[in-house]
């Protein structure tokens, strides 16, 4: 087993990080930028806002609010400011870029992933159903207590699945040895598991309907009577329930049963009138997570944006189709299956929206080797616009709506009293959504993230790992099956 960095070492390193500068703690007055609020409020051209004690103390048109005497001022004329984005669906802790396995799972690796999220302008990130609860609660407590350097805020959902099912054949190699997912096969087991999760004061719960098979023989899906009992019991405890469902029958079933969040977009089938009627009635939150199977970023996209924090060898592998899920190299023509997927996406995506599904930003980053943190978010939001959303709608879906879903009242928009979590951009994303990539600075709770040393650290860490594992490359060998979590 590879050695992990000791948790105490990470804490000692963390304590050496500098605190905010005096000007940041006393307040800063920002003026001249275009302000994208993050909700339906029109943008403020030539706006101004005051940040004090990590929060927005005042915001408005330039000239309508005054800077306190002696306060630091920053002229952002020509820039655009938008709220930090919030990722409501990812998988964190196992990705190693040149490796993916349970041995990567550690507080240090979680922190690395959250720092990468912050580097690309993500203020909060929720990992879905893949963490041991005690581990996740401790990490969350330590981050809230200020023991870590600046990074995206960590949130998590507990996970539940049918026996042997749930996470895909890669993710389960992490979740099974760590007993991270509750396995249930009856309504009574589901209710008992929900009560255990609720007793830990966890507000978010994800379940997988899929059997997944996982190359270990046939497995049954989660039956409707089980997930209906799960949803009903979770709602009694005030929990938000997310359902992973990837075919039309299952999506109909979970939405009709009252799930709060539908995860995934149908790509092998087209939506029918019955399901559209269910969506109009229920209006669930909807996390499309479409970008994982789209390799345009590596074939004809913004490779420098991705490669700034990844070794060249990793980018080259993805361009060549060398990932955990093998795919054609960029030089190959699109397959008929890929063409059909694209056709179904173009048909289905606007119908979800027109029927009242409330799109929430999520990426599935980390669920598969090399599809990772930060750039996945910018790729996903670009797909929203490519498939018919306006840039303004896509920004709302990636800022204030995930905050609403996560029950975060202190972030998600530029407004008085909110945390000063924002991105300074060199170009206007309302004109071209790819301008979310034109990041000049990222601020979390009013403190500017020092991105240059992070970039160097990320790049070098991956180069070191790449060299370390160069002689270890081989076909992935699954961990042996693990017994389900006891109820």
What does this structure look like?
By secondary structure, this protein is an alpha/beta fold. It has two domains: 21-81 and 428-465, Urease, subunit C, domain 1, CATH 2.30.40.10; 84-411, Metal-dependent hydrolases (TIM Barrel). It has 17 helices and 18 strands. It has helices at 7-15, 22-26, 107-119, 133-144, 172-175, 187-199, 224-236, 248-256, 273-282, 296-299, 303-307, 312-319, 336-354, 375-386, 391-398, 400-405, 451-469, and strands at residues 28-31, 34-35, 47-52, 55-61, 72-75, 80-83, 85-90, 122-128, 153-161, 181-183, 204-208, 240-244, 261-263, 285-287, 358-359, 422-425, 439-444, 447-448. Strands 7, 8, 9, 10, 11, 12, 13, 14 and 15 form a nine-stranded parallel sheet that branches. Strands 2-6-16-17-18 form a five-stranded mixed sheet, with no helix packed on it. The longest helix is centred in the C-terminal third of the chain and has 19 residues, at 336-354.
What's the arrangement of secondary structure elements?
Blueprint: H1 7-15, H2 22-26, E1 28-31, E2 34-35, E3 47-52, E4 55-61, E5 72-75, E6 80-83, E7 85-90, H3 107-119, E8 122-128, H4 133-144, E9 153-161, H5 172-175, E10 181-183, H6 187-199, E11 204-208, H7 224-236, E12 240-244, H8 248-256, E13 261-263, H9 273-282, E14 285-287, H10 296-299, H11 303-307, H12 312-319, H13 336-354, E15 358-359, H14 375-386, H15 391-398, H16 400-405, E16 422-425, E17 439-444, E18 447-448, H17 451-469
Parallel strand pairs: 1-5, 2-6, 7-8, 8-9, 9-10, 9-11, 11-12, 12-13, 13-14, 14-15
Antiparallel strand pairs: 1-3, 3-4, 6-16, 16-17, 17-18
Helix pairs in contact: 3-17, 6-7, 8-9, 14-15
